[in-house]
Amino acid sequence: MNNFILSCKNISLTLNQVPIIENINFSLYPGEFHLLMGENGAGKTTLANILSGVYPFKSYSGTIIFNQQELRLTTPRDAIKKKIITIHQDTHLYENMTIADNLYANLPAKTALNKFISSKKRIQLANIFFQKHNVYIDSSRMVNECSAVTKRKVELLKLYLMEPDLLILDEPVAFMSSYEIEFFLDIIKHFKNKGVTILCISHKYQAFYNLIDRFSIFYDKELKTTFTREDIDNGSINSLLFADFCQSRYPKIQVKKGKEVLCTEHLATDGSLKDISFSLQQGEILGFFGRSGSGRNTLSKALFGIEPLTSGTIYIDRLPTRITCPQDALDLGLAYITDERIDTGLFSNLDLLENVYSIKENNLGRFWAHTALEYNRYYKYTKKLNLNLNPHMNPDSLSGGEQQKLIMMRWLMSSARIFIFNEPTQSIDVPSKIDIYNMFNDLLLKGASILVFSSNLEELMGICDRIIFIKDGTVSGEISHDESPSSIQDLI
Question: What are the residue boundaries of the ABC transporter domain, all occurrences included (predicted)?
Fold first, then answer.
């Protein structure tokens, strides 16, 4: 008899006659930190969704043994009852409830509050709970008013009340800066020290390097290999995961800069923007970096008419213009590649082909009767982005990286000439990142200009001609591609 806490035997899942994972054999020891790695679309998240009850028993084939018993989950709630707790890639909170209500929802009997406790008392208890963990969050706020980082912190801190036996983390630090990852790691170390078994799916393996007991690699819908702690070193992980994909981590090209295509003067909003001025040239990649709450995310949305401006002027081709809604931005040749894949990026009721042609100018024929030319364009661009996807699949069945690439593909097929990317490589594996960087180069060669808003400073320094730092709603500084500032801390 082995001493595994979890054992998966010959797990396979097929959706719409498309194999998603095939014959997965995978086990976890009690108390281990097991890192699951591999390319987007390889099946990592699918396995996590099976273990958390998103894909119910009998939707897949094979057998799962957990704590010496066969696991037969029909809903995610069943997984919680078994003390299998999952932190998904995208936050899963009740958007129309307060933070306090979310914190105390669906807890085990040991830590649940009496259902007759008033809302006011629940908020008081939640505030005390957060302060105990040195986090100051107003638990009376509605979740839909909170940033992605705040939502993630609420989910992570709630783990103290959930008391998991098996903790599944699916790209948990995707929205976090390096400073916020430290907060996350402190929580994970707490549970590892308590003997909780942790299965972590992440491309940012360096962040977890000191926690890893074993790691496994998914490739092409199969689990290829598992290594022990003794096998782990950065060189072997790189060679196994990326092979010849990484001839250059940031394959940046230099193109001659043209005229000024976009300029802003003193942009401000009711909320986080106070005074933002900058300019963008044709053929330039301009990056924007700032911590959560700095105004970086708001600026990206304001330029595309998603967030309203209260003052300031935007110039396109040196002519003043008004962008009050996304359609105004579209008409001016702007494109916006969102980081909010599920909420605003994709239409879950449409297949992949319909999603790509959901922009009016992309649609070459009638919307519901696509032409051979449209199919040919679809396959041409999926090849460019290394996406081997059936056009009639549903976007909900894609990995996070595949969803991000599909959103990008939609805009690449448009006639836009100024591209706004918000966290373009969030939750994407290294080979896919390089695909996107190469697509940036293609855009530049075609005369486009690019704005990149990212919490990954290393990435910005690798791909951008200039980086503008946003702090407290204003521009705190700027560096060029070749500069190495002596004190970057002052800028952020």
Answer: 6-245, 253-491
